[in-house]
Amino acid sequence: MPRFAYSxxxxxxxxxxxxxxxxxxxSARAGLxxxxxxxxxxxEKRGALQFELTQxxxxxxxxxxxxxxxxxxxxxxxxxxEALETIGDETTDIxxxxxxxxxxxxxxxxxxxxxxxxxxxxAFPAYYMGILGSAELTGKLDETLESLAGYLERExxxxxxxVSALSYPGVVMVLAVFTVMVLAGxxxxxxKPLFEELNADLPFATRALLFIADLFTIWWYIPFxxxxxxxxxxxxxxxxxxxxxxxxxxVLKLPVVNGxxxxxxxxxxxxxxxxxxxxxxxxPEAIRTTTEGTNNVVFRERLEEAQAxxxxxxxxxxxxxxxxxxxxxxxxxxxxxxxTGTLDAQLAVAGIYFERELxxxxxxxxxxxxxxxxxxxxxxxxxxxxxxxxxxxxxxxGVKEQA
Length: 403
Description:
Elements (H helix, E strand, L loop, with lengths): L2 E7 L5 E7 L3 H10 L3 E8 L14 H16 L4 H11 L3 H15 L4 H6 L7 H13 L2 H47 L4 H7 L5 H14 L3 H19 L1 H11 L5 H22 L4 H10 L4 H15 L5 H6 L5 H13 L2 H60 L1
């Protein structure tokens, strides 16, 4: 059970410090109140062996719930410190609990909500903190938080759809490879001594499977080296700058998949930028933050070029059009928004457009891949079955000849 160090005030007004055990920080606070102790500060106390090499990031889903709850409390007129304490008591996410506890301390020491959030990049993205700062200046914190929560919810939903669409073929492929490895690496080798004893004339399919079996048993170091090289290649692609550039370019060239990735990136760009402009964030800062938040290197490089042109006074629509990232309908929306001063509304419409197109492309992808994967697995399993049956017929023929 976690331990929490606390500072509290007892019934006589004296300061008290100590440690208590509880399941959550909320339970610890309730236990102190039951003992007539008013908690001033509560934080988790970890042992000497409990340490973190890196800061644990707060999950997007938890951040969305936090933002929506805070919006409701602010709209109800509850002070920020009390609202944050209540949310911190109720959440079960340890990383978010620690973040909220630190933010409450900062607010009590005279800090602002945006400044307190800025100290925790592991919890709040850059665009989140920029929107909070503008909301505090405009006095529309509750509306802005509600808008942020809506954006986070849509982003989670979009990510879930994309991951679901791309993971299905991968799972089927892994199952197919696993099936072949079991049949060729375990089942077929059981018959190998019998084949050799009867000197059976084995068909090509059976010889191919036996070769695969030998590859994983006798010459195991070959697939082991190939697997290690593949893992190293994946680490290089996801960790190094050149690797990420190669990966992002490769993904954008894959048929069908590139459309899903492109529209997911465009939907996120329009949603994020529209939310920031609606919250009152200056356009140059909103563009910079949105560009930095783009997780595709190819898109980010082109958007950085557009950002540089905007800073030189070339407007908003033309630099984005020259990137060739946005379809004609979106470019027209940007042009109308820039000319009429309704850029935030046009970006919201563009976000809805990309979201619907993304859903269509995901459905098309899954509709096309489901039968293709079924046929693929059927061909592999059928090949193995035919190889086994042909081998058994070869054995029977050998037995008849010897008889």
